[in-house]
Amino acid sequence: MLAAAALLLTAGCSSDGGGSPGDGGSASPSDPSARSSSPGPTARETPPAKGSVKVVRTVATGLSTPWGLAPLPGGDLLVSSRDEATITRVDGETGERTELGEVPGVSPAGEGGLLGIALSPRYASDHMIYAYFTSASDNRIVRMIHDEDKPAGERLGAPDTVLRGIPKGVIHNGGRIAFGPDGMLYAGTGESGDTGLSQDRESLGGKILRLTPEGEPAPGNPFAGSPVYSYGHRNVQGLAWDGEQRLFASEFGQNTWDELNAITPGDNYGWPRAEGRSDDGGFHDPVGQWTTDEASPSGIAHAGGSVWMAGLRGERLWRVPLKGTEAAADPQAFLEGEYGRLRTVVPAGDDRLWLVTSNTDGRGDPQDDDDRVLELRVS
């Protein structure tokens, strides 16, 4: 790993990108049974040391507390609103918005509310949308049918609870969900401010979880009968797979280091006993680490051989070129301060990304057009 990935700047407490306390090895394929057989990338697959980012267009403006984004077949986008608890369809060409409806049971407060969303792998036939949200008692994952034939505002069916009991707090609610290449549902959770939960494998807090689409512990998980896939996390809000089906995750640090991790099933990522790289051989060290005022990372995406990481407090998009599960070159920062806080980044094609800003979340400085969805061309 490159020591240069550690950016030696003044540290600050990493909340969900604000100034108050809060969320500020090798990986394996998503099928744990294949962890020793997956080939690494060849030399020609190593991305160049220097990349580029071009803002192609602004897709949508005027969004309120956007958090999750899920591309629909055909090019439109679904966007969740953390505080309004709504899911909105954005026309991928015109930016026209149509509200699907409000998700019942959401209890927005602090960093909690309606967070990540994902489409079922069988969306073409089941029209199912999955959502991670904070309720009055916990964080949970539900699924709802998207009925496009209903009137605007009434297109979400009654939620079916997939998983409940994820610890909630004013801070550190995690919230990113994604279906992996194996068809299983992955969820990044936070420790809700109770640091001891991260090392407790009986708790769902401070973990990456791997579930069947119905919410059961996925076959092949490292701990029998448990949804826990990895532990020792503080607050995971970014999940992405590379071309070899290796999972990467972003994680908020506290006062010193934010992290990009390559995830190995069953490994311990150290929190609260370690933040960033550690001399303790029992903890899995990050691929890269950043001071909290430079990152406070939320969503990540993989494109062009690099992980692209959205920074909240850092107000920039980081590129981390990869060779296998290590950094192939120093990380690069793009869009620094140009669009404010950056929340979510999602692949939009081989060299394209969707990028969601987060300036209306109570910690940003919203401009007239905030919040926005941008289309980027990257290399």
Structure, described:
The structure is a single chain. This protein is mostly beta strands. It has one domain (3-378): TolB, C-terminal domain (Neuraminidase), CATH 2.120.10. Helix content is 1%, strand content 36%. It has one helix at 123-126; strands at 53-60, 66-71, 77-81, 86-90, 97-102, 114-119, 128-134, 139-145, 160-166, 177-179, 185-188, 208-211, 228-230, 236-241, 247-251, 257-262, 288-291, 297-303, 306-311, 317-323, 326-327, 332-334, 342-349, 352-357, 373-378. The longest helix has 4 residues, at 123-126. Mean pLDDT is 91; it is low at 1-13 and 19-44.
Lay out the secondary structure:
Elements lengths: L52 E8 L5 E6 L5 E5 L4 E5 L6 E6 L11 E6 L3 H4 L1 E7 L4 E7 L14 E7 L10 E3 L5 E4 L19 E4 L16 E3 L5 E6 L5 E5 L5 E6 L25 E4 L5 E7 L2 E6 L5 E7 L2 E2 L4 E3 L7 E8 L2 E6 L15 E6 L1
Antiparallel strand pairs: 1-25, 2-3, 3-4, 4-5, 6-7, 7-8, 8-9, 10-11, 11-12, 12-13, 14-15, 15-16, 16-17, 18-19, 19-20, 20-21, 20-22, 23-24, 24-25
Organism: Streptomyces capillispiralis
Protein name: Glucose/arabinose dehydrogenase
Pfam families: GSDH
Number of domains: 1
Q: Termini distance?
A: 21 Å
Largest sheet: 5 strands, antiparallel
Structural class of the secondary elements?
mainly beta
How much helicity do the residues have?
under 10%
The CATH topology comes to: Neuraminidase
The oligomeric state of the chains shown is single chain
Point out poorly predicted stretches: 1-13, 19-44
Note the main attributes of this structure.
379 residues; 1% helix; Neuraminidase; Quinoprot_gluc/sorb_DH_b-prop; 6-blade_b-propeller_TolB-like; 25 strands; four-stranded antiparallel beta sheet; mainly beta
